[in-house]
Specification:
mainly beta, four-stranded antiparallel sheet
């Protein structure tokens, strides 16, 4: 599976962005899609996954929504009420099982930068 993340940018605190992750190469619907992020100077952390179920990190619960359109081979991360601490490089990933750990995913996109100004 090849993954291409897009949609990052600069937004003011309280604003919204929608990230997209376009998949190609294999049957997208067979995979769990996850989002991770890495802030400057920090380790990469789990944000959300979407498949038959969705799950979110506590830090984004109620503000972010992960979804997918299998017909378009695309996953999405709708981010609302953004905070400066959401500033990070956001990665999409695909794997066969539900996991909040990086090792649970076999395929990774290149990352898209989200910057939230205060």
């Amino acid at each position: 599976v090849q993954l291409q993340a897009s949609g990052g940018g600069l937004v003011q605190a309280g604003g919204s962005l929608r990230l997209s992750c376009a998949a190609s190469g294999r049957t997208f619907g067979n995979y769990v899609m996850a989002w991770f992020r890495q802030a400057p100077g920090k380790e990469r952390e789990f944000v959300a996954w979407s498949g038959d179920t969705t799950n979110y990190a506590d830090s984004v619960k109620g503000r972010f929504t992960a979804s997918r359109d299998n017909a378009k081979n695309t996953g999405y991360l709708q981010m609302n009420s953004l905070k400066p601490e959401d500033t990070a490089l956001y990665y999409c990933a695909a794997g066969r099982s539900y996991s909040s750990r990086e090792l649970g995913y076999d395929y990774w996109g290149q990352g898209t930068l989200v910057t939230v100004s205060s």
